[in-house]
Amino acid sequence: MNKKSLGAQIKLTFSVLMIVILSITTISQALSIMFETLELAKVSTISNAQIAANGVNVELSEKATLIRALAIQFSEDLKEGKLELENIQNFLAKQSEANPTIKAMYYARPDKALVETTGWVQTPDYDPTTRNWYQGAITADDVYFSSPYVDVISGNYVIALSKKIVDDNNTIMGVIGMDIRLSDMHNILSNIANDSDAYVFMVTEDGSIVSHPDSNFVPATGDGVYSIKDISNDFATLLNIETDEIHQVADNNGRKFYATSHHVPSTQLLIVSCYPTSYVTQNIVAEIGQSVVILLLSLVIVSIAINSIVKKYISPLEQVVEALGQIKQGNLDIDTSHIPTSNIELENLVSSLDVVSSTLTLYINEIDTILDSYAQGNFTPLPEQNYIGDFGKIKISLLNISGNLKGLLSHTINSTKEVNIASEQIATSAHELSELTTTQGGLISNFKQESISLTNDIINVIEDIIKSYKITEDMANKATDGKSKSDELVQAMHLINHSTKEMIEVIKDIEDISEQTNLLALNASIEAARAGEQGRGFTIVASEIRELSSKTAELVGNIYQLINNNLTNLDKGEDLVEITVTALDNIVLASEETLNVSKHVYHNASAQKDALQKIITGVEELEQEMNKNSAISNTNISVSQDLETQLQSLKAQVDQFKI
C-alpha cells in the first residue's frame, strides 16, 4: 500500500477537517435558515389572519356598537311613545350619512312596516319579517351578523347587522339593522399584503367567499356567491381546523400555500390567510446558495494557508525523512548541508541525524570485523568501541554471543562424546528389541491360528443351537395347533352327546306310540270277538298290529340299550379327551418355556459369535502392530548406525573451532 508524505497527509487532513467543519456549519446554518424561514412563514400567516380578523372585528364592532346604542335609544323612546316611523327614518338617515361605510340603515316592525335610508319604495308583496336579517335578530340575544346576500334595493352583496328591540315584557317592538357592502370589507383586507405575495380573504362558516383579492372570486352584482371549494378542495379543509392551525394547501392551479383560518369574534365570518410556499423555497435556496459560495471561498483560503505552512515547516522534515530513508537502505554516508534549519527544532534534528550517521558507521565497521572473525571460527575478538546509550546493548550482546558460543562449543564437544556412548547403547538395545519383537510376533501368530480354530468350533456349536431353536419353535407351533384341534374334538363330542340324548327322547316317544298301538290293537280284538263272524277279519288285522307293535317295542328297547351304551362310551371319551387336552396344554406350556429358553440361548449365542469375531479382529490388529514394532526396531538399528556416523562427522567439525 502506497503511503502519502507528511505534507500531503497534513494537507489532506486539514482540508478534510475544514471541509467537514465548514460543511457542518453550512448545513446547520441552512437548516436554521430553513426552519426560521418556515417559522417566519407560519408566523406571518397567523399574524396576517389575526390582523385581518382584528380589522374586520373593529369595523364590525363599531357598527355593532352603533346598532346596540340605537336599539337601546329606540327601545326607551318607543316605550314612551315618542317615536314614529317618520322620526325613525330621519334619525337613521342622519346616522347613515355620518358613516360612509354604512350602505343602508332600516327599521321594521312586526306589522311589516319598514323604513330605510336609501329611498327605496316598499312593494306590496315585500315582507321584511321574512328576511334573514329580521329572523336572525329575533332569535339572537345580541347583534346578529347575517351571511352575505343580494340586497333587493341595490342588487349588491351585503352583510346585514341587526338587533331586536323589545319592551319590558320582552315583546318584539321592531328590528333595527344596517347593510355593509362586501366591497368595504375588501378594502379592509386588501391593505394586508407584503412582498411575499401573501394575502388574506374572508369567508363565512359555510364556505361562502365574502372578500378575495382575486376578482375572479369576488361576486359582482347579480352573480352568484362563490364558495371556498371553487378555489380547491384543499382550501375547503381550512373551515374545519382549529384557529391559527397551519395547513399546507394547493389551489386548482397547483400553487401551494401555508394557510390558516381565524374566526372573527361574534360573527359567522372566517379570515383565511395564505402564504405561498414558493417564496419560502426561494428564500431557502438563496440562503443555501450564499452559504455554498462562502464555503467554497473559505476552502480556497484554507488551502492556500495550508500549502504555505507545509512548504515552510514540513518540507525540511520530508528531507530529513529522505535522509533517514537512505540510512534505512544501508547508506550511512549522507549529506545534510542542503536541509534548511529555519527553527531550533529542525537544527537539532539535522544535527542529530549527522551524529547518528557517523556513530552508526563506526559501530557497523567494528561489528563487521568481529562477525567476520566469528565466521572464520575464531571467537577470540571482542568489541572495543564505546557504545553509548542503547547501543551499549549491542556491545553486551556481542560479548554474550562470544561467551555463549564458546560455552556452546565446549558443551557440544562434551555432548558429542556422551551422545556417541548413548548411540552405541541405543544400537545394542535396538538389536535386542528387534529379536524380542520377532519372537513375540511368532507367539501372536500361533495364538491367532489357535483362536481362529477355536472360534470356528464355537461358531459351529452356535449354528447347531440356532437350528435347535428353529426346531423348538416349530414344535411349539405344532403343539399349539394340536391343542386347537383337541378343543374342536371336545366341542364335537359335546355336540354328539347332545344329539344322542335328543334321539333317546325321540325313541321314548316311539315307545309310547308302540304301547298305545298295542293297546288299540287289543281293544280292536275284543270288539272283533264281540262282533263274532263279522269281526273275524278285523281280529286278524288287530293281531298283526299287536305283533307289529310288540316287535317295534322290542326293537326300540334294543335301540335304546345301544344308545345308552354309546352315551356311556361318549362320557368315557369326553373324560379321555379332557385328559388329552390337559396334557396338550402342559405340552404347549412346556414348548413355550423351551422356546423362550432356546430364544435366550439363541440371542446369547449370537452375541458370543459377534464377540468371537471381535476377538479374531483384535488378534489380527495386534499381529499387525507387532509387525510394525518389528519394522520400527529395524529402523532404530538403521538410525543408530546413521547417528554414529553423524557424530563422527560432528566431532571432526567441532575440532576446527578456536575458543
Structure overview:
Strands 1, 2, 3, 4, 5 and 6 form a 6-stranded antiparallel β-sheet that branches. Strand 9 and strand 10 form a beta hairpin. 69% of the residues lie in helices and 10% in strands. It has 9 helices and 11 strands. With 659 residues, it is of the alpha+beta class. It has 4 domains: 274 residues, PAS domain (Beta-Lactamase, 2-Layer Sandwich), CATH 3.30.450; 45 residues; 178 residues, Orthogonal Bundle (Helix Hairpins); 104 residues, Helix Hairpins (Orthogonal Bundle). The radius of gyration is 70 Å and the shape is flat.
Keywords:
alpha+beta; six-stranded antiparallel β-sheet; Helix Hairpins; Beta-Lactamase; five-stranded antiparallel β-sheet; 659 residues; single chain
Order of helices and strands: HHEEHEEEEHEEHEEEHHHH
Percentage of residues in helical conformation:
55-70%
Q: Give the name of the CATH architecture of the largest domain.
A: 2-Layer Sandwich
Q: Count all strands and give the number.
A: 11
Largest sheet: 6 strands, antiparallel
Number of domains: 4
What's the CATH topology label of the largest domain?
Answer: Beta-Lactamase
Structural class: alpha+beta
CATH C-level label of the largest domain? Alpha Beta
Mean of pLDDT: 77
What's the Cα radius of gyration? Answer: 70 Å
Distance between the termini: 48 Å
- Tell me the number of helical segments per DSSP (H or I, 4 or more residues long): 9
Rough outline:
flat
- The fraction of residues in strands falls at 5-15%
Query: What is the CATH superfamily classification of the largest domain?
Result: PAS domain
Poorly predicted tracts of residues:
none
